[in-house]
Amino acid sequence: MDETQSWKTDRWWTSHYNFDPEVTKKFAFQEGIELHDVTLRDGEQTPGVVFTRKEKVEIAMALDGAGVHRIEAGMPAVSEDDREAVKEIVKGVTKSRVFAFCRVRKEDVDASVACGVDAVVLEIPALSQRLKVLGLTVEKAAENAVGVIEYAKGLGLFVVFFPYDTTRTTLDSVMTMARAGEAAHADRLAIVDTVGGASPEGFSHLVRTVRSATKTQLEVHCHNTLGVGVANTIGGLAAGAKCAHLAVNGIGEGAGNVALEEAVFALKLLYGIDCGVNIDRLYELSKVVAERSGIGLAVNKPVFGKNIFRRESGMVVERYYKMPDVARELELMDPAWFAGETEIVLGKKSGKYSILFALRKRGLTATDEQVKEILERVKSVSISKKGLVTESELDEILKNTLAKTGTASPV
């Protein structure tokens, strides 16, 4: 893909500065970046969210259909229902690799193996204050981890060692955990921003530092408490991490995990990196998770928020009325990709061309005076109700205004 194709295609138009050699020379992206979805485990830890076994399988099949590389199907040690869901997911997927989430305990590993998975995430705190609650030091926790990692490897499992709260831990503690993972032959080491307390620069620095000191490939798991989760994740990947942990719609504890769809779109549109996921399937996946979790998408949510392709401002609508092809091109993304088309709505910020657009859509014409009166009424209704004017409200306004002189006629 050449530079021009990277930032401007028939589906998007981003910034060419993203691909300036002075920018890209700093990147150390790995070939074949992997996406590890945590919707069914970390996502379900959202307070009040409970997925039934059927819903977990449904979401897993949608993830598999979209080609997401890895699915963290749950924590078998939690309940019988979780174990049965993991078993069904293992049997049902055709593309994704299924992981189970475990504490650093052999019994958790055994429960996962009994579900048929061949890969596990083994978690243990890396922060001394968290370990103190468990009666452990960093050194003792690392020693315990070695034994369990070796046990899991002996069972033929792919192991991601997950010493969490990595970003608030001393570098000595991080390296103690990294050396433990390497000594036990863990396949991956996760750098985890559990509370979302790292900046993109700080997180990238940590990933780069650990990567230079260990042969174990790295993964990144970030949270979005301060709104920089996607930036941190991409920064970690650009610093050489192989895999990103993500959740559909960004659900999860607190402000949530990093949204799968946001990371996928950002990597593709801003960095020219195709992770191999079927982007055309992500919108339906997002809707399924929103429905099953009971957490609807905010209208201003990145990528799939309703307002991404909604326009009220009269100045903006003018170009849709006069030059619709140019107006579409000026969008960041083509709405036909997944949202159908840009929706022109009416309200306080509407202008003359908003009314002309609505009239043309209905096959009607009006005099300049009528357009002015319709606009005044639209603004009045919007201000009065503190919201947008509905189609039925507009129809009533048009009927009352155009019927006065009988000048309304089809275009």
How does this structure look, described?
This protein has two domains: 3-293, Aldolase class I (TIM Barrel), CATH 3.20.20.70; 306-402, no CATH class. The chain is an alpha/beta fold. An eight-stranded parallel barrel has the order 1-2-3-4-5-6-7-8, surrounded by seven helices. A two-stranded parallel sheet has the order 9-10. It is built from 17 helices and ten strands.
Task: Produce a short descriptive summary.
By secondary structure, this protein is α/β, with parallel strands linked by helices. It contains 17 helices and 10 strands.
Layout of strands and helices, then pairs:
Elements lengths: L2 H5 L13 H4 L9 E4 L15 H13 L4 E5 L5 H13 L4 E7 L2 H9 L4 E7 L2 H6 L4 H17 L3 E7 L6 H13 L4 E6 L6 H14 L3 E6 L6 H10 L4 E4 L13 H12 L10 H12 L16 E2 L2 H9 L1 H7 L12 E2 L7 H11 L5 H18 L5 H12 L9
Parallel strand pairs: 1-2, 1-8, 2-3, 3-4, 4-5, 5-6, 6-7, 7-8, 9-10
Helix pairs in contact: 3-4, 3-12, 7-8, 9-10, 13-14, 13-15, 15-16, 16-17
